[in-house]
Give the backbone structure.
Amino acid sequence: MAFGTISNVRKVFPVAELGLRAKEPVVALDDASFIFERGELVALLGPSGCGKTTLLRIVAGLLSKTSGSVRIDGREVDGPMGDYGFVFQSPSLMPWRSVIDNVLFPMEILKRNDKAARARAVELLELVGLSGFHKARPHQLSGGMQQRVALCRALIHKPNLLLMDEPFGALDELTRMEMNDLLLRIRKETGASVLFVTHSIGEAVYLADKVIVFSRRPARVSKEIAVALPYPRSQTTRFTPAFMAAERAASEALGIVPHAEAAAS
Amino acid sequence: MNARAVFTQLAYPVAGLALIVGLWALACRLGNLPTVVLPSPDKVFYAFIDKLPLLLVEGWVTLKETLYGFLLALALGLPMAVAVANSRTLNLMFYPLLVALQSVPKVALAPIVLVWLGTGLESKLAIAWLVAFFPIIVDTAAGLRATPKELVELARSLNASRTQVLIKVQLPAALPFVITGAKVAMTLAVIGAVIGEFMGSSEGLGFLLLTATSQLDTPLAFAALLALSLLGLAVYLLVEGVERLMAPLLPPSAERH
């Protein structure tokens, strides 16, 4: 059986939850289904506001689903499981904690903040290139460095699934490419499965084993694209025909460029 | 801060104060004002030195009323803010009321409080509490609600209990707001205590001020005023001192609210 099975997930926000001005319920997610294997990196790609973040929050157990089923590692998700890592678009670090204490936050919540946890935090910070910054405060770091800390925080409790919600969307292009490579390295070393929400076609194709393309709201899965590129990938990979073909397929699925066959005829 | 910066920070306010006191002395001399209307600075100073034991005794009373009122406001305001910020029902029921009540002149309640609690310490404490309570609860509740949503979600995604979310996320996030509220509350608590003393009392700096003016002892009234200002400054600096102790837990001042 697959590690993760998302089947026919639907999310409707009722009028009562939408505030005073809402007139009708909002269908955030119409019908999402896909599966992924252990250790796979799956990109969820779609226009902004298409409900991919909603799906991620449902998988995290932060949001209830209206219907459908989410099974991760053989368990039906109906609330927070406590063993996923979550990375937000903004680093969302705690300004009152040092870098290393931010990384250790999940271990405090899980009541596993022991010596081994501290050693792992040191190791993770080294892995992301922040060895000298244990005692720094978040505001002393650049945006990219803060997001690296957030990444360490998401990995500290050895989650078997990493949920990432446009984590590099607020970074500049160069920092983003660096972070992409860092994520691929981390994935290789930890073997974690990753669900990665993005609206960048290039980023989705560069990172993922598989790209799930969502349509506009109400979101449905419009296409699944297997990215036939071997790992390890490097920035040169972006200029290979296979990469461009995958980008084209994703663009077609999003309706940005016409389908190749249609254009030819 | 280096010595030069300290000097600049101190020298200018001192020079400003000297200028005002100098103008005051000049006005007394040139205007030939009677002491009962406006005593010259030196007369106030002598009255202050002369009556220092009395000022200390009365000041101690006012200080107690202020601090007790403030601490009671803190002790009741914080848990109530937590309740209001974390319960949708309580929030809908009471938050608008709290904000509306904040703009009601609480000192207008002083005569009623006096009827209820008499002219002793209790009524002063109650009035000090009444004026100090609202900034603390409103600011704390605002701080708790301003906790970044992501941090709460992060904790929740790890199956954190409500207590964990409160202690590890919400309260630290609200701390800068609590301190801002406490600064306002402390200043207001002094005013509350003095108002209480004006309304009916047999001790305290407010009482002293009142009796001194009724006996036309204006220098003593001014000395009491000076003592009151020093008291207000001292309790404010007390809160600032606590803030400084908590600095490692606070965001850098540039990002403060």
